[in-house]
Amino acid sequence: MTRYTVTWLEEAQDELAKIWTTAKERRQVTEAANAIDLELLYDAETKGQPLSEGLRSLSIPPLHVLFSVKVSDRLVEVSLVRIDPGLPQIWKVTDSNRSPRHDLPRQRRHQFPEA
């Protein structure tokens, strides 16, 4: 079992913040982001579905991420996050005009302020 460090690129962090701020079910978004981190912590090169050389896809509802694994560095980089397109309408945003928070903590566990 190989342990990895899971990082999110800034663009992915910003998109996660936007998803969280506009979600009806913020708690589920937070739980999914944390579950993604935990899922990719061990043996990340075997998780999700391969898309192209070095790029993999993983869905933990309501989130879907694209990530790359650097085996020699034991590093996972999440490069894209979005709402899983196969989810029902409950995941529509509450207010698409709200701007994302860019000052959310950049720690391994995704923690968001209470609404």
* Tally of individual helices: 2
Tell me the name of the CATH class.
Answer: Alpha Beta
- Determine the fraction of residues in helical runs and give it as a percent range: 25-40%
CATH superfamily descriptor: RelE-like
Low-confidence parts lasting 5 or more residues at pLDDT below 50?
A: 89-108
CATH architecture heading? 2-Layer Sandwich
Q: What is the number of strand segments? A: 5
The coarse silhouette is: globular
How would you characterize this protein structure?
With 115 residues, the chain is an alpha+beta fold. The chain has one domain: RelE-like (YaeB-like fold, 2-Layer Sandwich). It has 2 helices and 5 strands. A 5-stranded mixed β-sheet has the order 1-5-4-3-2. The longest helix is centred in the first third of the chain and has 16 residues. The protein starts with a strand and ends in a 32-residue tail after the last strand. 23% of the residues are buried.
Short structural summary:
This protein has 115 residues and is an alpha+beta fold. The chain has helices at residues 10-22, 26-41, and strands spanning 5-8, 49-52, 55-60, 63-70, 75-83. It has a five-stranded mixed β-sheet with strand order 1-5-4-3-2.
